[in-house]
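Ops channel
N.P.: pipeline sanity check, posting one input/output pair.
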């Protein structure tokens, strides 16, 4: 089982700048996001990279959105990303846990 860290306005740089980090962009009322989150925290994941979620309707992300303006244009949730050393290296929409497992298996850590 995996732990899903919560990203906020004070720690987002720590996660985005890791060698690799999965970030799920969500909103507090997103049912599909909750389904994916449940899969993440209850199913073993083979890759040992940090897994995190960022709730877009929480305050405190002005600097993040200035650095990554595309975040303000996310229109399908959950929006899944893999960051490496501050750069977006992969992204996809949807709540498919199988897609997440495939994407994570493609990473060489």
């Amino acid at each position: 089982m995996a732990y899903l860290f919560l990203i906020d306005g004070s720690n987002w740089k720590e996660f985005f700048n890791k060698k690799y980090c999965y970030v799920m962009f969500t909103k507090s009322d997103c049912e599909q996001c909750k389904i994916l989150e449940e899969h993440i925290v209850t199913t073993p994941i083979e890759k040992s990279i940090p897994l995190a979620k960022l709730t877009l309707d929480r305050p405190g992300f002005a600097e993040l959105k200035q650095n990554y303006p595309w975040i303000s244009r996310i229109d399908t949730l959950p929006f899944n990303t893999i960051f490496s050393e501050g750069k977006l290296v992969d992204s996809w929409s949807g709540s498919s846990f199988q897609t997440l497992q495939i994407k994570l298996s493609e990473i060489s850590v």
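N.P.: looks fine end to end. The domain at 4-105 is CATH 3.40.30.10 (Glutaredoxin).
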